[in-house]
Transcription elongation protein SprT
Amino acid sequence: MLHNVNLEHLISYLPHNADLYVRKWLENHFITLKITKRRETKLGDYRKLVENDRHQITVNGDLNPHAFFFVLTHEVAHLKTFVQFDSRKINPHGKEWKTIFGHLLLESIHVYPEELQPYILHHARHPKASLGADVNISKYIIDDKNPAQIYLEDLEDGTIFSIGKRIFKKESKRKLRYLCLELKTKKKYLINATATVNKL
């Protein structure tokens, strides 16, 4: 059950007939869906709202319809993984999430243009945490984004990366976040594993 979102407004962000899948996937969940302004560090995210026992998904509103639906599908997979498994014992983009995400992509593959469907099929069979890590997908539906962008968790420890104008060095994992050193200030920060970063 969608909360705090006008379904007709949501449809305006989606490809033709994609709303049929969104309704089906979310009909048994209490969820707040927020369409946000462009964010440099992420295209979308999912989290469980402990205070009101709802799920929350956010998606950047500047994405084209196919990119918006792809990112929304990615986040719905996180929701379903959270519901089906003990989130404390699995990785955010582990095998459980990959299985569910792949299934959702296959189920909704006909929403995408015919020329894109072979790439969606390949991605469904080999899901990646970062949309930007799949160049074929990126060039079709995120053509205004840098395809070199990846998630923080994709980087090896010790890798230098940037978020916006700030430059960091990835250090060690702390549950679902990573301890990172900002090179300019020498201060350390815990950054979400699924933050979108630029590898330097």
Remarks:
- Strands lie at 2-3, 31-36, 44-49, 54-60, 149-151, 160-163, 166-174, 177-182, 188-192, 196-199.
